[in-house]
């Protein structure tokens, strides 16, 4: 009888663009201020990629680090899946195909998913299923965004929120359940699709003069409505996944929520009574990087030496769609020397 196979997070990596955009920088472009942005979001700065960098470039750099840390070669990767809402190209090829080419991965599945800020949770859900069905041994998952290419720099309510970056992970087989991805929950509700969306340039509103004049090619958000629903949904989702797996929050070493807004993170953390030292917080430095935010936060904890082999992580995200999800997993990578 075959031994059970589990999926595990065997490595993490990230790439963060070097160009820092401060709140004061944005105040020279739109009517805003450091005080206004900080009070409402907790964000002090974010990173923008260079004009010459595409989302695939950010993703490739993060992926190379994740593969190296997994002690693998590109040829060991069985599939490449990228979560992004800012792909290199509108329809095709997928950003994953470009990344696979950049890494020298040929003849393997490569595709994108669009789950907005919940993208990395959805990637874990897919990778766990593919690994535990024995379809693949090593899957490269990447959350990557160049949101600076799809934000409206004339809209002060949204342009101050977002930044660029990429986070990558290798999901591999393990026979050790205590070092595995224990559970992943993904969900959606399209009833609230207009809370957070890019209305233009798809089949609903094809590119034309009106779409461009109304700037529908950029991110649009109903901020107050999104905030209220995000806090409620994120909190309830964590409660449900902990109860489902009969796990106490004391079992968790780090709570790593999607980095959208400090007020949302604080509200959820308070509702769940998580100690502040257990809550990952990077939004003040990087802003909202959508699908990249959770792997970037994991990577930061890892590079600080706070995440070790066996560390128990609780992930939680909410994004456009609307989509949301949570995951409980152990880190199964080697600690940094």
Structure description:
It is a single chain. With 337 residues, the chain is of the alpha/beta class. It folds into 2 domains: 6-177, Peroxisomal Thiolase, Chain A, domain 1, CATH 3.40.47; 181-331, Peroxisomal Thiolase, Chain A, domain 1 (3-Layer(aba) Sandwich). Helix content is 32%, strand content 23%. The protein has helices at residues 23-27, 34-41, 55-69, 95-103, 119-132, 156-159, 209-213, 223-244, 262-272, 283-286, 293-303, and strands at 6-15, 19-22, 45-48, 79-83, 110-113, 138-146, 164-174, 181-188, 196-197, 220-221, 254-257, 312-319, 323-330. The strands form 4 sheets. It has a 5-stranded mixed β-sheet, sandwiched between helices. Strands 8-13-12-11 form a 4-stranded mixed β-sheet, sandwiched between helices. The chain has a two-stranded antiparallel sheet with strand order 2-3. The termini are far apart. The model has no long low-confidence stretch (mean pLDDT 94).
- CATH structural fold name of the largest domain: Peroxisomal Thiolase, Chain A, domain 1
Return the CATH architecture of the largest domain. 3-Layer(aba) Sandwich
Beta-strand percent range: 15-25%
The coarse silhouette is globular
Distance between the termini: 38 Å
Give the proportion of residues in helices: 25-40%
**Using DSSP, what is the number of strands?**
13
Main sheet specs: 5 strands, mixed
CATH superfamily of the largest domain: Thiolase/Chalcone synthase
Could you state the oligomeric state of the chains shown?
single chain
What is the C-level CATH assignment of the largest domain? Alpha Beta
- What is the spatial order of strands in the main beta sheet? 1-7-6-4-5
Q: How many structural domains are formed by the residues?
A: 2
- Average pLDDT number: 94
Enumerate how many helices there are, as a single number. 11
Uncertain runs = none
Subcellular location: Cytoplasm
Protein name: Beta-ketoacyl-[acyl-carrier-protein] synthase III
Family: Belongs to the thiolase-like superfamily. FabH family.
EC number: 2.3.1.180
């Amino acid at each position: 009888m075959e031994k059970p196979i589990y999926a595990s997070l065997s490595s993490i990596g990230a790439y963060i663009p070097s160009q820092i955009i401060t709140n004061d920088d944005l105040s020279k472009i739109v009517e805003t201020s450091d005080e206004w942005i900080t009070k409402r979001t907790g964000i002090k700065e974010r990173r923008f990629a260079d004009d010459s960098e595409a989302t695939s470039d950010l993703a490739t750099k993060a992926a190379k680090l994740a593969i190296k840390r997994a002690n693998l070669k590109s040829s060991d990767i069985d599939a490449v899946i990228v979560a992004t809402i800012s792909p290199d190209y509108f329809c095709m090829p997928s950003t994953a195909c470009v990344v696979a080419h950049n890494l020298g991965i040929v003849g393997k599945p490569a595709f994108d998913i669009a789950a907005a800020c919940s993208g990395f949770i959805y990637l874990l859900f897919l990778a766990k299923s593919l690994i535990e069905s024995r379809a693949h041994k090593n899957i490269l998952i990447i959350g990557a965004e160049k949101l600076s290419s799809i934000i409206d720099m004339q809209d002060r309510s949204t342009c101050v929120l977002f930044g660029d970056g990429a986070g990558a992970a290798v999901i591999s087989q393990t026979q050790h359940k205590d070092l595995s991805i224990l559970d992943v929950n993904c969900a959606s509700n399209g009833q609230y699709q207009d809370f957070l969306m890019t209305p233009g340039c798809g089949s609903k509103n094809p590119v034309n003069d009106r779409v461009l004049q109304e700037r529908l090619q950029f991110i649009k958000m109903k901020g107050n409505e999104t905030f209220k629903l995000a806090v409620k949904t994120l909190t309830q989702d964590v409660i449900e996944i902990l109860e489902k797996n009969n796990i106490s929050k004391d079992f968790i070493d780090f709570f790593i929520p999607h980095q959208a807004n400090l007020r949302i993170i604080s509200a959820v953390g308070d509702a769940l009574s998580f100690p502040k030292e257990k809550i990952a917080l990077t939004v003040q430095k990087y802003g909202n990087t959508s699908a990249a935010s959770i792997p970037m936060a994991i990577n930061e904890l890892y590079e600080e030496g706070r995440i070790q082999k066996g560390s128990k992580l609780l992930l939680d995200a909410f994004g456009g769609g609307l989509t949301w999800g949570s995951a409980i997993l152990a880190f199964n990578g080697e600690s940094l020397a």
